[in-house]
Amino acid sequence: MKAAQGEAYQENFSKLLGRAMYDVAQRRFKAEKIIAVLGDCIHGNHGELRVLDVGCSTGIMTNHIAGRFKLTVGADIDVEALRYASGRKADDRGLSWFLASDAMSIPFRDRAFDLVICAHVYEHVPSARRMMFEIHRVLKPGGLCFFSAGNRLSLMEPHYRLPFLSVMPRAAANWFLRGLGRGDRYYEKHLTYWGLKKLVSGFEVLDYTKRIIDNPDRFSATDVCPAGSMKQRFAAFVAAICYWLIPTYVFVLKKTS
What we know:
- With 257 residues, this protein is of the alpha/beta class.
- It has one domain (13-154, 190-254): Vaccinia Virus protein VP39 (Rossmann fold).
- The chain has helices at 13-17, 19-22, 24-41, 60-66, 79-86, 128-138, 170-179, 193-199, 209-214, 230-241, and strands at 50-54, 71-76, 96-100, 113-119, 139-150, 204-207, 248-254.
């Protein structure tokens, strides 16, 4: 499914990032972060839960997560990535399946899932607000959404690895990318910390960002913030004095109504 007329999705995103989206070891490590954070929140039998992974791309993370739950569904608009995902088996005999789906119009009934995963997806969607409405709709009351999000106020844009790209006016960012031969336009729509808080205001928000910085071993974050390292000390310093400059936030969103 595609975005509504007049809106634009970036096609074949997995091809843009190349090896990163197909790096099995790296993607599984990222999946362990999600499992660790959700495991800290969930009480009871994980094996009875149904999970939707919005923006699943190549499905490596989806298949790794699937071993912990009853059913895990991956959804994305990237057909080539989904073809790769469907050709792989879920880890640990988990059950997973994939479909082409627009995150702004999720093709499932209300209250269909216990958990939703939305990991670094919001900036790729023409309307992040519509996506969050859909996530809220398909979650059961009391259901949780793992939500990780990049900050617009970042020195280095995470997808293109270009300085100040996410804070440039849209026209300037488009010109910058075209001038460097890196793309036809800048599709990503990053938000600041305050914009993200507004985006998820329909949920109860459990902010795990500082907890992950303080305890990277517990939350499988040693690849980006090794315990006792200069990176960890610097991240803790930034979190303490200017939290709005943290490059990535991790929230668990709870549907309360």
